[in-house]
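User: Can you fold this complex?
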Amino acid sequence: MQGDGRADIGATAPALKVSHLVKRYGTFTAVDDLSFDVAPGEFFGFLGPNGAGKTTTINAIVGLATFRSGNISVFGADVVREYRRARSYIGLSPQDFNFDRYLTAEEILTYQAGYYGITPARAKPRVEELLDQFELSDKRRLTYLQLSGGFKRRLALARALVHSPRMLILDEPTAGLDVELRLELWDFLRTINAAGMTVVLTSHYLEEVELLCSRIGIINYGRLVALEDKRALIARHGQGSLQDVFLELVGRRPLA
Amino acid sequence: MTNWVGFGTIVRREFKRTMMTINQVVWPPIITTLLFLFIFGVGLGSSVRLMNGVPYIVFLLPGLVMLNVIASSYDEAASSLFQQRFQLSIQELLIAPLSDLELLLGYLTGSILRGIVIGGLIMFIGLLVVHVAPQNGLILFGFMFATSLLFSSLGMIGALLARTFDNLAIVTTFFITPLTYVGGVFSSLHALPPLVQRVSLFNPILYMIDGLRYGYIGRSDISPAIDAAVVATLAAVAFTISLLMVRKGVNLRV
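Assistant: Here's the predicted assembly.
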């Protein structure tokens, strides 16, 4: 079930392919005919204002949301028809902490590996590696409620990586982190991306996206309003930064 | 390819949860049952000569076992799944390469194990008190298993439909507890007035207790075949509904 089998047919397919995705909640259309690809090894920024449809799209990719129209595939595996393969390729670090409160940090990683079909004995070296990598070794016996915000975020990332996925989806990974930890996390993400991991990042910190991502997709009211190389996007709009481009494309929304 | 490790991990997680709440979910039913046996069996039961041809305390034991199998099975499935829904930790399972059936069977197995282990413990302790061995262990186990499957499935349905913890209590308070207590735990169907007997036949829990009692003392108020048919049918229906709800992602997938 681990997602690191590189020799299969998914090796030449896009890491992520979203085609004509439509997601409705009653009469409200959250995602409207959304299409985009992410190449293997790419660091992709997926942006949009609150309520634009980012999390809905991510939920559809990872299996937390159903959809009736459109297709999504991960390294060639359709997320509905070949959900086992598709899900084993994805590691998700969600925006909200969703840990099991009965488990310790170490157990959270071991059990998560188990859900992906990895026995505790096989998961042990990987769990130890991640506990060490994220400086959680001395906190292994603590439950998530006993961890500080920074360590909860580290644990979320470690959990997303425990089954060795090929694509990491990060939904607001640095929310609530102090500057030092944020810089550490950026370094880590750059390192794993350089090693071949595809990364899809959503963040409200646009400087973070501008710094890390090579290509950007911007969604507004469920529709894609921009999709191109970061530098080309900024240059084409004649703006100085991604934030200026973002505000030009999605506009400023009134508070009320 | 079946994700057996994933399925086993859910069962392991459910077992761990039970062990972490042992003072809430394991000891109370055992202590309550011993008190029931002492007060109704040894105390008040001494004024009842025989019930269905056996001493009252012997008649009482299978009903008390079933009462706890029902309560434990429902409670485990309902509270565990609802807690995970409430805390969003269910998402850990929903994004994993687990089929809907594996996910459902994982929870059901955890709940059935709890129901049968608690029922088995009560039966064992009861046997030490009443000194009467079961007539047919296989029938006894079969009724415990089918009843546990039924109420574990109902627990899953309840957990998927509930919006608050208070919603979960509706089923227990207004349906399971009253139907169990009037379902033949404390008296034989034949000891009731004719009208109450006829009404009681619409109580499904009567068939579960009657079937279990047949396995224990070899006598029943209703045909054991009818008991088995009712329990198996209800268990199959409840399991199918819970599977359809998980497949549809009711309150699981948005």
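Strands of chain A lie at 16-25, 28-38, 43-47, 69-74, 77-78, 90-93, 167-171, 198-202, 215-220, 223-229. The first helix of chain A runs from residue 54 to 62.
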